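Entry 14. Ran structure prediction on the chain below.
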Amino acid sequence: MRTLGRALAVTGLALVMSQAVMAQAPVTAEPDVVIRQEGNRTVEEYRVNGFLYAIKVIPKSGPPYYLVAVDDEGNFMRSDQPEGMRIPSWKIFEW
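Output, structure tokens:
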């Protein structure tokens, strides 16, 4: 009888945990990109499920650079080189 009670408790807990996992919003495969002009530069914001994880800044003169999120508190680090970037960025075609 005691074993049956434990088995029912474990089964109930597993059911509750599976429902909690299923209730979370699914991660989308494609990021949401917002592009806007700010003075003499273009800013592209990359978000996944509302989380801002990267910002690409394209100045009128000079090369573009990225600001990449380093934590969940809104702190960003400038990344001019592709090494160490946490977001995929491939240059497929350029003219």
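The chain has a mean pLDDT of 74. Will compare against last week's run tomorrow.
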